[in-house]
Predict the 3D structure of the following.
Amino acid sequence: MKKTIMVDMDEVITEGGFLHLINDFAGTNYTRDDIKDYYMQDLVSDKMAFFKYYVTKNQYNYCRLLPDVVEVLKYLQEFFDIYIATAYVINEIPRECGINLVQKYEYLYDNLPFISPQNYIFINNKELLNCDIKIDDCLDNLKNARIKLLFTSYHNNDLSDEYLGSLGVIRVNSWLEIKDILMKEVSDEGCSSKK
């Protein structure tokens, strides 16, 4: 039986769409280096005006896939059952967030066609999910996994490797690094099963 991997979507598979909309709305040129908090919308002074604009757009028309993500996920699928778990409710506008489900679904379906839609999980509280391996940019979402991989992002840069190590969390900076870690896991499992 294959081990299970939970993979986050935003800032792990894709990046840039939400920030593009903030810059377009506000007439700014923010980059990821300008953001220190988890919630990018805190960059905007009039959040409700921004969210009225936001619901008329599809952020996934402006995002990009992270380097090597498609090739690595396709490769890992030979060894693991992969589930994409992504949050979709924005606290400021919960009623309007149904559109995020459709947009996320269509983006995943079009860009990762080798992962079955039956393996999409739309959920905000990922702590409820028990998977062997979790890959996420938010520390809280890594709970209930044996292997916890924190994908480096603008809002978690200040977490030290020592602190992460005390929580059993490994920082990863690229999909090629993830591939190396997980293939070592496969190799180690293969060796132990032969003993």
